[in-house]
Amino acid sequence: MGKAWNSVEDEIIKKYYATEGSKCAVRMENRTKKAIIYRAKKLGISCKKPGKSWTPEEDHIIREFYPQELNKTAQRLPNRSKMSVSSRARVLGVREMAPSKIEWTPQEDEILKKYYGTEGTSVLKRLKNRTKNAIANRACRLGVHIYNKAGRV
Q1: SS3 of 2, please?
Q2: pLDDT in tens, 28-82
Q3: Using the 8-state DSSP alphabet, how is residue 95 labeled?
């Protein structure tokens, strides 16, 4: 077990942790950032860094686009990382849509019919949110085959 906390250290955490987070460790000798975080949690103090709160608009974007775009949704939120978007989606209860559950559009079918014969599963560059297996399966259902110079493969 580590060194006992004293009232002076607790006061430093109470005064500075909310705005500085674990960086307030520089105000105390022999305390690590991890120890500061643990003690603040035990004291019921959370870090509220300005500008980091999620806005209702950001939450709306995550709810609307995350199920299909997953971490690509971060491109719609310039000040957020892929990891933070993923974490926020989890907090909001937003789940990714399983690729097999996403209906194929007529436009996707046309792309498959036009390019699958020459490109094979490389056509995935043209079909966002589809896997190679999904593309091959859909092409088979549509009766589209890969062709090379010698004919059907």
Answers
A1: coil
A2: 888 888 888 889 888 888 876 555 678 889 999 999 988 888 888 889 998 888 8
A3: -
Residues of the chain by 3-state class (helix, strand, coil), percent to 5 = 65, 5, 35
- Tell me, what amino acid is at 59? D
d(Cα 32, Cα 29) in Å, to the nearest integer? 9
CA–CA gap between residue 88 and residue 60 (Å, rounded): 11
Q: Report DSSP state, residue 123.
A: G
- The helix-helix angle for 132-142 and 106-119 (nearest 10°) equals 100
Task: State pLDDT tens for residues 80-111.
Answer: 888 888 888 888 888 776 555 678 889 999 99
Q: Contact at 8 Å (CB) between 145 and 119?
A: no
Q: Which helix (H) or strand (E) holds 56?
A: helix 56-69
**What residues contact 69, with CB distance under 8 A and at least 6 apart?**
129
Supply the DSSP string of 10-58, one letter for each residue: HHHHHHHHHHHGGGGGGGSTT--HHHHHHHHHHHT-----TT-SPPHHH
Q: What span, in angstroms and rounded, lies between the C-alpha atoms of 11 and 58? A: 35
